[in-house]
Specification:
53% strand, globular, 172 residues
């Protein structure tokens, strides 16, 4: 009888541990950053340059911070860091928000909204003089390690496509 009691308590303990483990894992399944979590990694691209000159190499590093409560990123053009920013869930507005300053003194603030087949990034860029411009980006996955980033300027409800950048995930 004593052996049965010990085995039963151990079994209940294991069951309780599994339940606690499943409950701890449950928030990850409900992670508000899940729509962008696939982006964590190192990415490379070529951005068209003005005047049709050689494209500019882009290095983008996206990483989890604060125990997964936010996603940080740094972007460099031709080896020079240009942007450093953060994605985080805004519980008051119930949206994924992002913001980042640039090396030129601009500030970009926006939101991410999942669409049927892409992520919609809607944002405003305020230059160092205080002038603001509204943009949207459609970020569409093109396989496990590729995505297309299409930039649009927004004037009223009119979208004007500016250019597309194709990103590829790299090993480092």
């Amino acid at each position: 009888m004593r052996r049965f009691l010990i085995v039963s308590l151990l079994a209940l303990g294991l069951l309780d541990a599994r339940t606690a483990s499943a409950q701890a894992a449950a928030p990850a399944a409900n992670d508000p950053l899940a729509p962008i979590a696939w982006m964590v990694g190192t990415w490379k691209a070529q951005v068209p340059s003005a005047g049709g000159k050689d494209p500019i190499p882009v290095d983008l590093r996206i990483y989890s911070v604060l125990g997964g409560k936010a996603i940080g990123f740094t972007t460099s053009f031709s080896g020079v860091q240009q942007y450093q920013g953060l994605f985080a869930y805004d519980p008051a507005r119930k949206v994924i928000a992002f913001w980042y300053p640039s090396a030129d003194g601009e500030l970009t603030v926006g939101t991410v909204t999942p669409q049927a087949d892409y992520l919609l990034l809607d944002f405003q860029v305020t230059d160092s003089g205080g002038a603001a411009t509204h943009f949207q980006t459609h970020l569409k996955r093109a396989g496990q390690d590729d995505y297309d980033w299409t930039l649009f300027s927004l004037s009223g409800s009119d979208l004007k496509r500016l250019f597309v950048v194709h990103y590829h995930r790299t090993a480092n």
